[in-house]
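PROTEIN FOLDING TASK:
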Amino acid sequence: MKHHDTDQNACLAESISLSSRTDLFEILDNQRICELSALNTADSQLDSGFPNAAAVLRSAGVSSRRILQTGIQPLDLAAALENTLDSQNLGRFTDFHAVLLCHSHTDPAAVLHLANSLKHRTTHHCQLPEIHTFNAGCTGFLQQLQQARQLLQHSAADGRILLLNIETPESWHCAADRAFCGIVGASATATIIKKQDGRPITWLQTSHTQVPHSHHLQPGPLFHTEFTRTISFRGQTQHRCVMRMHGEAVFVHGIELMLQAVRLAHQHNTANTPVTLIPHQPSGKLLRAFTAALHAELPHISVLSNLQHSGNTISATIPELLASHPTLHQPNPHPLILAASGICMPQMHSHMSFGSAYLA
C-alpha cells in the first residue's frame, strides 16, 4: 500500500523536545544496560547479556538513553509539552485545528487511552480539538505529517496542526532482551505544521511493503509480540506483552528501505545541491551501514544524528533532531530530507513501513 502527497500547502514551523527534562526522564548508561541484559532467566530464549559497557556501545551505538522517572506517566509528558508550548507563546492544545498523537505500543489501545486522558483533563469551557491517534512505530512521524497536510487542505488560512510524539518504549520492551535494551529510549516532542511561515513540505510519501519469506536470512516473522516473563528497565520481574524482532532480516531490509526512501525524496532535488538528511535511527550498526551505502551513492547528503545520547526514540527520533537544530525550520538554500523505515504495526509479521519527505 502506498500513499503519495504532492500538495505544497504545508510548512514545518516549530519543534520542541523535552529531552533535557531531568524531572521527567532518568538516564540509563551502558553499565546499567549491561547489568539489565544479564538478568535473563536460565530458560530464556534470548541471547546472553552484554559482557561489558563497551560492548553495549559497539552493538547499539548508544552511550545513554532515557526512561521515565518514577511516578511519571505518558500523560505527564503531554502536559509538560503543552506547558512548554504555552511558555514559548506557541499556544495550548486547544488553539490548534487538530492534534495528531503518536504513542507506539504492543497494546494498540494504549494511544487511545492516552488520548482519552487528554480529553478528560480539559474542562468543558476549553474543549480540545479532534485528536487523531497513531500506533505507528518508527515511521509514525511521517504518517502524522501526511495526515496533517491533508487536514490543512480543509482548514482556514491560519490553520495549525499539532503533532505529538510521546514514546515510552520501556513499557513494551524487555530490559533483558539484547536486541532492544541497549537501543530504545523515551522521548516527548511537539511539532507545529501550518500553511505558511516555515519550511515548505514539497513532497511526502509513506508506504508499507511485504518482505518475502525467501528474503529472510532465517525463518520467522520480522516482528512479533508475546506475553511472557520479562525484566523491566528498573530490574523488576514482570509478566507483560513485549516486542520481539528478527534482527538480521530487519537490519538488511531496514537499510534497503531507508535507501529507497531517500532516493525517492532526492529525485525532487533537481538542482543537485547539498542536502541535510534527518533519518530515523534504529541502531548504531544500521545507521553506520546505511550512511556508508548512502554516501557511496549520494555523497553530497549530510546525515544528522543524536543516537549516541538519545537512542532509538521510535516516532520521536526525527522531531527530536528537528528540535535540537531550530534553524532547520527556516527556508534556506539547502533542502532537507526526512526518512524512516521500521515496523509496520498492523502487519508486523511480514511487512515493514518506510517513507520520506522533501522540504525545500
Summary: The two ends are 26 Å apart (CA to CA). The mean pLDDT is 91. The chain has one domain: 1-360. The longest strand covers residues 199-210.
